Amino acid sequence: ARRFFPSLHRAFSLLPALGERRAAGGFATAIRSRWFATDSQAAANSSLQAVFRRILQKKHKQHQELEVRLQNPTITIDERRDLGKQLADLSEAVQLEIQFKKKNKELAELEVLAQDSDEDMRAVAAQEMEACAEALKELDARAAELLTPHDPIDEGDALLEVRAGTGGKEAALFASDLFVMYSNFCRERGWDFEILSTSSNEDGYRDATASVAGEGAYGWLKFESGVHRVQRVPATETMGRVHTSTASVVVMPLPDQSVAEVHDRDIRVETFRAGGSGGQSVNKTDSAVRLTHGPTGIVVSCQNERSQQQNKNAAMKILLSRIFAMQQAQRDQALVESRRRLIGETPGARSDRIRTYNFPQDRVTDHRVKVSRSNLTGLLAGEGLDDIVVELRRQLLEEQMAALMAEAN
What are 53-67's pLDDT values in tens digits? Predict the structure, then answer.
C-alpha cells in the first residue's frame, strides 16, 4: 500500500502494531484487500486511479484558463498576483498530468510494437512496457499523495478533556471511567499521557484534562470528541433500576506557542493558594496558577501540582490548545460546524451522544458508524477501543474518496 498509495497508507499507518489483534489487522487488511488483492479489487483500484487522472486533467484545464486571463492587459496588480498564486498552486498537478500523457503515449506505441512480427522486437517492447507500467504506478502514487486530503495537525499531540454531564454522581463516576480508559489506551500505544488538571469529589471527576504526546495522537483521538452516554445500575441504587448518565469529551490539537500565535505580553499570570483537603503543602503556598489571555478572554487555572512552575506549564498547555482551537475555528467555519455536530448544541445532554455504554447488555455502540462491541469491562480498561476508531477512520477515508470521485465527475 505504501508503494502505490502512500496517502491511503497514511490513513492506516497509525494503527497499533499489536500483532494479530483483530482491530489493527481488520482495517489494514480491509484497505489492502480492497485496493490491491484480487482481479475485481484491482479493477476498483484502477477506477480510483482513473478518478485521480480526471481530476488532474481538470486542474490542467483550469491552469490553461488562468494563463489566458493572465495575458489580459486590463487586470489589476492585485488580480495578477492572485492569478499567479493560483497558477503556482496548480503547477504540480499540471506537471503530473503532462507526465501521465507522455507515459500513456509511450505505452500505446509500445503496445503496437509488441505485435511486431520480429520476436526480438516484441521482447524489447515487452520489457519497455513493464518499465512504462512501473513509471505510471509511481505517477499514480504521486497523484494520490497530492490529491488525497491530509491534515498535518493529525500527526501531532492532543489535549483531552473529559467532563461529567447529566446524571449527578453517576456522571462523575462515568467521567472518571472514561479518563482511565483513555489513559490506559494511550499508554498501551506508547504515548505519553500527562494529567494536567482535575476537579473531583468523592464520586469521581467533575472534569479532567490531560495532554497526549505521540505520533498521530490527535489524528487518532479526535474521533472521541462528543457526548458519551452510559446506562447502568449505580452502586447506590437499591431498586436495581438502570440510570442514564453522560460525560462529554473534547479533543483538541496541542500546538506549541509559535504555532498558536500567542505572545507572552498577552498573558496575565496570577498565583493563589490551591484549594483542597490540604496535605503536606498543597494549600500552604501560592502554588496554584491562573492564566488569562487578554485578546480572547480565555482563562485557565491549574493547581494539581505542588510546584508553581509545574502548574504554570500545565496551564500553558491547556491555554495554547484552546486558543489554537479558537483560531482554527475562526479560519474555517466548517470546524465550528464539525465540533457542533460532534458535541451537540448542549454539551452533556442525553439526546446528543456519539456512543452508548450499555452495562446490562454488556455492549458499547458507536452511533456514527452503527458499530457495536461487547466486553465493556475490557473496553473501559483500554482494550478494544481501536476496533471502533478503526471503523471511524475507515468511514472518513471513504468520504474523502467519494468527494474525490464527485470532483472528478
Answer: 888 999 999 999 999
